[in-house]
Amino acid sequence: MSDEKFLERLPLGVSVKGAKEGSLDWRTDFEPRELYVQDSRIIRDKSLKKKQIFTWLARVLAVGLESIAGLLVYQEFKRSGELVIPNVVLDLAIKDAQYLLLAIHVHNLGGKIENLRVACPYCESQFATELDLAKLKVEYAQESTTTITVKLPVGFDYLPSADSQFDFAGKKFNVFQFRIPTLRDFLSVENLVQSSDDQIWNNTLYARCLQKVLISDPQNAEFNGYAMLERDQTMLGTELFSRLRLKDIGAIATAFNSLPAVASRCDVTCSECRREVSVAVDSSFLLQTA
Q: What is the pTM of this model?
């Protein structure tokens, strides 16, 4: 497989203003930038990478891309004195942002990572191996999509505002509609990354991306398709998710994790016991020259 695999197109893509006034075009093209030694101060900012990984990612994308969907990235970032991340970067689906980090690495350093140190969980040996990024599976969206719709196994028990015209006793709000999470969303919850409770972080992200909460009940025309009042949805916030059953929150997590993306892990063979070891492909070794 060729290194060009990571230079083809974004897994999800972005919508930009089209040729016709008011229209939107679905675009998946991008252009990596040739990096220079002077760019290392951003790439090698270990403190930022450790404490604010999504801020680090945004800055690396801003310095490592010429353009996304025809919109300038690096020139805009440079024009701001490297202080303002261009909106086209912030509005990337998080899955596309993670893909672009790999694309920038491949464009500048190639698709092979040599002498990667791996600890085998089976025989406990330490071995050096070569990681071929071209082996990573990439899934692509076949059409433009901006939302995630999840049908829950059970649903949310809702007591509406007093002025609601409907009696919701026994009814479940079992369809949650989200917009696809962006790098901007992950930056907004970045301070919660260090939380000891991952579900608090997830619930905050879900609440930020939530668009509608509805009832799906084809057998009951009065309630079918009814949406939760926006003010109640806003007031409930993360409680909408903390009060869900585990099977429901699991369905939401699965839907978020199933978006088209590049795989985050790759298998390598242990040189001692010859078993396959799964290696996380992350920022710890990407764009590193030494």
A: 0.88
